[in-house]
Design a protein that fits this description.
heterodimer; A: 313 residues; alpha/beta; Arc Repressor Mutant, subunit A; D-Maltodextrin-Binding Protein, domain 2; eight-stranded mixed beta sheet; 23% strand; B: 244 residues; five-stranded mixed beta sheet; two-stranded antiparallel sheet; globular
Chain lengths: 313, 244
């Protein structure tokens, strides 16, 4: 496939008119028609029914449309990133991160961009999942990282980054500190610091109740910073996702029988023009190996790397 | 017991070919012959796809010798961004497009590149491999070949399309691949079934393509000696002095 062929294909899909598509692409119509014919030959079927007054996508055309669009946007992104580098201007990365997601996830990637583009600026927005959705809708953020955004808006694109477990986090002086693993029953009568900003707070509470765990007391905490301070003061215990970073003064343990997992997702807005840096970060995050985040700390990593054998599936 | 998949059957053949004291083309051919012998029906599907790509001259408009190689900024297997222009400051660069860690031919190709890597370095050059796979699978290809060079992730085949090298696998081959143990969706982080035409470019310090090898038949790759020759012609090492 050639990049211009896909550009023409996307223009005809948009306008459903070969003449208008040719104008839009600044190309003579016979050239556009020829390019689309070549693409059709390569893909092995017609992409359009050439009807009047409007062309129509065939079944193959409809199937290929999202695939070709994704590939084309990646190519356009690759080109504009290179152009940005040459011009010395990469623009502003506007990214919204849910309160329950650790910024540490993003830091290695920001570091890489910073090394490559010393003019990079970023705008970091915070809020709950609903807020992240709103930032995206309004265009204040180009990308979002959150666990679950209500899909009441069909223009939201999402890519799962990783799925992770929850762990017990306690002060190093706490009676449960130092254990690799605790039973659900051991949480009986503990003072729980509840992460009210986490979409999974309710589900964790339900899981504890289902295990007949009578919490000694529950405290609502509104941000991770406060939670860490309270844990450091040994005021209570917390259940946190694996990817949340904690200071050395705290200890973590697996909770046997706690079967709650969450999936951290990357969000973007379909059909909205992406900045070079936004497109680059999107691909960096999607391509990244999240095992180090999803699996820490001491958990068997038998699946951390794909086997070297050629057996693929 | 379930019948072995093509992927499983090829494992030993790939290892045997890897150990062959023969040019890369013969090592690749040994695998291709084994597939043809073991699973003629799979080879028939491959041949049909290759014929379709060849009939449409897929890849012909990729950067040619004497033309500039487009700049790239791509993450390697560790997430580190690598820029072509930066690599070229030090000398010529071998850019190798691969389908993925699951592909026996790409494995042998990467293994061959690892074999000549010390010589390329001595000549003042560098090697990068590019695949559409996410980092952990790029790392798997790198580990397989014990490669001293990075494997870059070209997610969604963006850079490949920029070079007019991306192609659609097509339904018949997709089904055959899945049945044969090659489901590439989790590796590529998408369901597009797009792949790059395997290709090798030697890019000179001036950013122009000095040599290229593009073949829609993914069972054939640029011969290692030809790569070394092109690197030597542009590099700063002994070979260049000798030919001057």
């Amino acid at each position: 496939m050639e990049m211009h062929q896909i550009r023409y294909f996307l223009a005809v899909s948009r306008t459903l008119n070969f003449t208008r598509a040719a104008e839009e692409c600044n190309v003579a119509q016979p050239s556009l028609t020829r390019a689309i014919k070549q693409l059709e030959a390569e893909l092995g079927g017609d992409l359009f029914r050439r009807e009047r007054p409007a062309a129509q996508l065939t079944e193959l055309g409809m199937r290929m449309h999202p695939l070709l669009k994704q590939c084309y946007e990646a190519a356009a992104g690759a080109r504009s990133l290179a152009t940005s580098f040459k011009g010395g201007k990469v623009g502003t990365l506007r990214i919204a991160i849910a309160d329950a997601v650790d910024i540490a996830l993003l830091i290695p990637h920001l570091n890489q961009l910073k090394r490559m583009f010393n003019t990079l600026e970023f705008k970091l927005l915070r809020g709950n999942s609903k807020d992240i959705g709103e930032y995206l809708k309004k265009g204040e953020a180009e990308l979002g990282i959150a666990v679950e955004i209500d899909r009441d808006w069909d223009r939201l694109d999402s890519w799962p980054l990783f799925t992770e477990r929850f762990q017990l986090v306690v002060n190093r002086c706490h009676s449960l500190a130092g254990k690799q693993q605790v039973e659900l029953e051991e949480l009986q009568h503990q003072q729980l610091l509840s992460r009210g900003y986490c979409e999974y707070a309710g589900r964790l509470g339900t899981a504890l109740r289902a295990g007949d765990i009578d919490i000694g007391g529950s405290h609502d905490v509104s941000c991770e910073h406060d939670l860490i301070k309270l844990l450091e003061a040994d005021i209570g215990i917390a259940i946190m996702p694996c990817s949340a970073s904690t200071p050395e003064t705290l200890r973590r343990a697996e909770v046997e029988g706690l079967d709650v997992k969450r999936t951290v997702q990357l969000y973007g807005v379909a059909g909205r023009e992406r900045t070079a840096v936004g497109a680059a970060v999107m691909k960096m995050l999607r391509g990244a190996d999240w095992n180090a985040f999803a699996q820490r700390p001491e958990v068997p990593t038998k699946d951390a790397k794909p086997p070297l054998s050629i057996i693929a599936a | 017991m379930a019948e072995k998949t093509v992927a499983e059957l090829l494992q030993q053949t790939t290892e045997d070919s890897r150990m062959m004291d023969a040019p890369l083309s013969m090592r690749l051919q040994a695998v291709a012959d084994a597939v043809r012998r073991l699973r003629p029906e799979f080879t028939a599907v491959v041949d049909r796809m290759v014929a379709r790509l060849e009939a449409n001259e897929v890849g012909r408009n990729a950067p040619d010798v004497g033309e500039p190689m487009p700049e790239f900024i791509l993450p390697d297997q560790d997430g580190r961004l690598v820029r072509l222009g930066e690599l070229l400051e030090a000398g010529p660069v071998v850019v190798s497009f691969n389908r993925g860690h699951w592909c026996p031919y790409c494995r042998l190709n990467a293994d061959g590149l690892a074999e000549i890597a010390p010589e390329v370095r001595r000549l003042g050059g560098k090697i990068v491999a590019i695949s559409p796979e996410t980092h952990r699978y790029g790392a798997a290809l790198r580990d397989y070949a014990d490669a001293p060079f990075p494997v870059l992730t070209d997610l969604d085949n963006g850079y490949a399309l920029l070079l007019n090298l991306a192609f659609w696998v097509g339904d018949e081959k997709r089904v055959a691949m899945k049945e044969s143990g090659f489901d590439i969706e989790p590796y590529n982080g998408n369901n597009t079934w797009m792949l790059p035409v395997p290709a090798t470019f030697v890019v000179g310090r001036d950013g122009l393509v000095k040599a290229r090898y593009i073949d829609p038949d993914y069972r054939r790759r640029m011969e290692l000696d030809a790569i070394l020759e092109a690197v030597a012609a542009d590099g700063s090492g002994e070979r260049r002095l000798r030919s001057a």
